[in-house]
Amino acid sequence: MEWLARTGVPWSAEPDVIASRRLDRSGWEPPGSPSGVAFPRTVADVRAVLKGAAETRTPVVPRGAGTALTGASAAGSGSVVLDLSGMNRILDIRPADGVAVVEPGVITADLDRAAAAHGLRYAPDPASLELSTIGGNVATNAGGLRCAKYGVTRDAVLGMEIVLAGGELLTTGRATLKGVAGYDLTGLFVGSEGTLGVIVSATLRLRPLPAATATIAAYYPDVESAAAASVALAEARIQPVLAELLDQATLDAIDPGLRSAGSALLIVQTDGDQAEAAHAAEVLRAGAVSVQVSEDPEPLLYARRQALPSIERLGRPLIEDIAVPRSRLAEAVRRIGVIAARHDVRICTVAHAGDGNLHPLIVAGSHGSPIPEAAVRAGDDIFALALELGGTVTGEHGIGVLKRQWLAREAGPLSLDLQHRLKAVFDPLGILNPGKAL
Question: Which residues contact 409 (CB under 8 A, 6 or more apart)?
Fold first, then answer.
């Protein structure tokens, strides 16, 4: 790694440092280990590393907090991990313009809290918002609970600074809320999983904090009824901030006491006036066991965010991520139950029901043990179900390495070929996160 030392960028080849940056939260293990970890602090540092990597044909794996769930930030033999967590400054918040400019290592929740001091919010809020970084969110086009109303990360990104594979610095987009000049390169980089360039700053849209919110906990006798209730909200032309569905298996994992009122829970939040909240509660009462309205959302949202940690205590989870048209949501959750029974595996289903994004979490044996074949077959059936219902194999987690064969099936040969050709334009040597996303 002499070339990396010559860049002057802090780096390490210590085994414990490499081990701590080698994997992401997916559990997927690449063959071998990276050769080193670079710790850039400036844009110039990132440019120096990528220039050296291009000269030596060294693969580079960009990394934020390592919360990726698809293997997108796992690094294997011969690569260098580019740990961007140290580039964590909020460079500017401009309240009158409704924008923030941040480095990639900024923690998502920290930006939201900083914006709140100005009466604003950063709307995207993935479940990992207290850990995940803005750079990682942009690279995967992360979603979250509030995206039912405010959209996913792409809807908040106005512009970026990106270091390309050869070390060149590219500026995309703008700092204005409107702008249509040229091709949308900003949108192209959002969700590209570090395969086209390395994000070194992002200009993000902020939104006003709501004057008030109302949070509704609606319990149902079964998960299909809860899913149908979320569709009923859309049919009533109610746009909730969030609509989160938890099935019986998930409630049991979090706290069996949560299931005392019903076998499925739908958490709905509105941020309009009292009339909107009252209308939502009225719609949700149809078929519900109980409906409660609260002005303090934290206990319910905390329970929702504890879903994955709670399921991880049951065993190794395969965290699937599909999206279907909202009108097919009830059918999707019903058929996921059929898949679980067919393969005799435990599946805990959590859904961002407001936009049809489901997370069937397959409990696949104990941590560290091989994944049972039944769990793999169940996952394949879930992906096939998503495509059958007119949906997608990933709503917000990305492709990484775990879903590449399913991307080929969803996109088709022409689209996939065009994407490979785009990759070659931006990264002709194929050194940026090779083997990921496509």
Answer: 387, 393
